[in-house]
Structures are given as C-alpha cells and as structure tokens.
Amino acid sequence: MKQGGSDAAKRAAGEAAAETVEDGTVVGLGTGSTAAHAIRAIGRRVDAGLDAVGVPTSFQSRELARENGIPLADLDEVSVDVAIDGADEVAGGDLVKGGGAAHAREKVVDASADRFLVVADPSKETEALSYPVPVEVLPAARSTVAERIEALGGDPDLRRAERKDGPVVTDNGNLVLDCAFGEIADPGSLATALSTVPGVVEHGLFVGLADAVYVGSEDGVTVHE
Ligand code: 5RP
Prior knowledge:
six-stranded mixed sheet, binds ribulose-5-phosphate, NagB/RpiA_transferase-like, Ribose5P_isomerase_typA_subgr, isomerase
C-alpha cells in the first residue's frame, strides 16, 4: 500500500469521520492504519457513553475494536448505518482497496452501509487510478485467474508475506494477486470484467461506492462529498 502519508494526517481523517457516528447506530469498521484511528476514536466515544455497535471488516479490525471496548455484531445480525474505511488510492469517488488483503469483507460491509466514508491522507489522492488492483482468488484458481488477468491487459503478481516464506493468505483462506494495469481509464468496465472471471472471490476496485472522502492533513481535514 502507499506509505507516503503521515500518521498525523491519517489520524486527522480517521478521528473526523469517527466524530460523525451518531448515537444508536451500527458502524462498519474498516481495516488499515487510517481506519484504525477511527476505531480508536469510536472506542473512546463508546467509553464516554456513545451507544454504537461495530461490524468489523477483518480479523485485524475485530481485534482492535475489542481492545477498544466497541460492542460487535456480525453483518447478518444488523444493518450498517455508516462504514468508515481507508483506501490505497482515491480518484473522485472511485477507490483501489485491499492493501491489507481485506477488500472482500470490506466491500461487503462498505457497500451495505447507508453511508460509506473513506478516510485517507493526501498521498492517496490521484486524478486517475493506477495502483495495482488486489484480486482475491481461490487457491486452486490462481493460475487460471492470472491468465485471464493478463488477457485483460494486467500484470498479476502473487502477494507474498513480508516476514514469512510463502504467500499472503486472506482471512477467507484465499490468495491475493496484485494486478498492475497502468492507468485505469475506465474503472467501471475493469471492475465488471474482473468480477466475471471464475475463481475471483473479490477485487479491490470500489467504483462509485464512496459517499464522502475525508482527507486529513497536519492542518485539518477536507471532506469531498
Ligand atoms: C485494507 C485496505 C486499507 O484500507 C488500505 O490498504 C489503506 O490502508 P492504510 O490506511 O494503512 O494506508 O484496503 O485491505
């Protein structure tokens, strides 16, 4: 994932989005370092009396929410009022997500929310998406999916674990192909094409799902609706 942003900028974005969570609501809890600031801030508000329930998007966000005292529910028990999640790249309302290999559950939770708030630092903003698209694949379909992605003009690369010998395995037990397409002229068409490849569980193109983007900086937060 892009690492250019400062932690202060991520914190500003995450905390500003967390401030919008209303009493009596269900919140989708995103994954990554920016969403983590929102989770910690919601935890502090719960500690101070806010009535909110969280729906985690990953093992990582579930653990952080537990540590911060946020009551949790599964998506089949509640409906999500607002989801707060990070992104690897943001172009208007379109995103690339999945730097944390959590994009399958993130997409289910974020897309189900009445409002989906993206939290980001300025290094994530771009005119056109070009970040390699994470594609979660069934392990048995790794090479057939890779061939289909090459036919779509992409360059698939199996994501490997940084500190272990072997591939990254998602919370769902699958593999991730990071697929470079260069500048993505039509994210909607590519998203549809990727979704139709047999063996693809989910890809990290989030097209037209965001309701607002909170971009933090050392000086404050800009909100793009
Ligand atoms: C995880 C994600 C993250 O939201 C994305 O990678 C951004 O992470 P960070 O806020 O740490 O830069 O999509 O799958």
